[in-house]
Amino acid sequence: MQKRRTGDLKLIQELNRSIILDSIRKNGPISRSEIAKLINISPTTVTSAVSDLINEGLVYEKGVGNSSGGRKPVLLRFNPDTHSIIGVSVTNSYVKIADMNLEGKILRKEVHPTNQLKGQNIIHFILNVLDEFLVKKPDIEFCQGISVISPGIVDADKGVISYNTKLNLYGVPLKELIEKRTNLPVFLDNDANAFVLAENYFGLFSKYKDLLYITIGEGVGSGMMVNGSIYRGFLGSSGELGHTTIVDGGLKCSCGNRGCLENYVNWPAIYSKIVTALMTRNRYTVIKEMVSGDLTKINPGIFVAAVNQQDELAIEIMEDISNYLSIAITNTIHFFNPEVIIISGEIIQDNPLLLESINKLVAAKVVPTLKDLVNIQSTSLGAEFELLGAAAVILHGKFKFQML
Cα 358 to chain center, whole Å? Predict the structure, then answer.
């Protein structure tokens, strides 16, 4: 019984410490007495935890506050630079790695094309590029851990990639493999769930408690926040919006189904439509001029630029994307009813016409009482949303930073 009580006390102390650190991070500069009042914890507990946090370099004293009588209180601030984290974003075509501080500031970054590696080959590749990255890090002793995000179904608790058809990964204990290789704590999560966390920590959507995050790239993923917490579903398989059927008997998907959303709005599908229009129908498009006739140079940025120039072909494709997305989003709104829907991906970035089109189509499809409440926005995280997602996962896991 005594052992259990000791364990319970240690857990309470760790939770108090995390809450206190998070309070300083969000509200600093702040005094010890203000923290105690803010989170309803005894001043003695705050003083003890703050002493430990200062010794670890996570918090420092700077400045004094106003006094209501007696000595002026010393103010505390969060120090994001004495420790670092390693963020890793795995996609179907590249592995992105960054050394970051505790606020997600990128100190060093590398991007490694995977050259269509799959299965065990992609796992070996991830381990090797991570090894090479860590060798170049002189202050490894101050690294708080490694955060890895990946598309597909991920069991975050067990650290396992359960299901990823595009990379041919099934039941891969990636957390364990990296920890054995690096001797650092590792956190693993689905990429879209990570982006939800990142919007909360680093973005402009922290006030929302119920939201849907959609990411569009080589596939389509989504993450859900319900009542302020990530909703993972059974075995972590929630949020597979890309594998919802929008065309009955449509294109065959890698998951085995037909007519899945991601086969109609992902970048490979968009690229294929552009090339087909040029090669088989000889359609005029400014896209061809932008790449000087070299179709291999067509990328999402080129497509977005063509949309913004009102290129006829680009607008047609954009309208198709909007329509398919509006079907899936409308269905989601009707059974989930999120306050806001956030979309990220290169085809959305700097593409207000696409965002406007999706909003209009969804507003026209939802039940009338929801029409004026449709709120679909692009990510506030910018171009580095992937690495900020990885940073948010480790901050949430390592320091138990709270959702606002």
Answer: 22
Burial class (CB in 10 A: 0-12, 13-18, 19+), 323: middle
**Phi and psi at residue 290, to the nearest 5°:** -60, -30
Which residues on adjacent β-strands are paired with residue 160?
A: 155
User: What is the C-alpha to C-alpha distance for residues 389 and 185, in angstroms, rounded to an integer?
Assistant: 17
Cα distance between residue 348 and residue 216, in whole Å: 8
Burial of 127 (0-12, 13-18, 19+ CB in 10 A): middle
Helix (H, G, I), strand (E, B) or coil at 155: strand
- The residue whose two tokens read 């490979």 is 268
Ordered strands of the 211-216 beta sheet:
229-230, 220-226, 211-216, 340-344, 376-378
Q: Mention every residue, 6+ apart, whose C-beta is less than 8 A from residue 348.
A: 216, 354, 355, 378, 379
Facing residues of 106 across strands?
A: 100
Cβ pair 250, 259 in contact under 8 A = yes
Closest CA to 222 of 161, 152, 160, 175: 152
Closest Cα partner for 191 from 274, 59, 90, 92?
90
Q: How many CB atoms lie within 10 A of CB 116?
A: 10
User: CA–CA separation, 214 vs 220, rounded Å?
Assistant: 7
CA distance 308 to 318: 11
226-244 b/e (C-beta count within 10 Å ≥ 16 → b): eeeebbbeeebbbbbbbbb
- Give the H/E segment covering residue 391: helix 385-398
pLDDT tens track for 200-223: 888 888 889 899 999 998 889 899
Residue in the structure block whose two tokens are 């965002």: 355
- Model confidence, pTM: 0.84
What's the pLDDT tens digit per position in 235-264? 777 878 989 999 998 999 888 899 999 999
CA distance 287 to 277: 11
**β-pairing verdict for 186-190 and 160-163:** unpaired
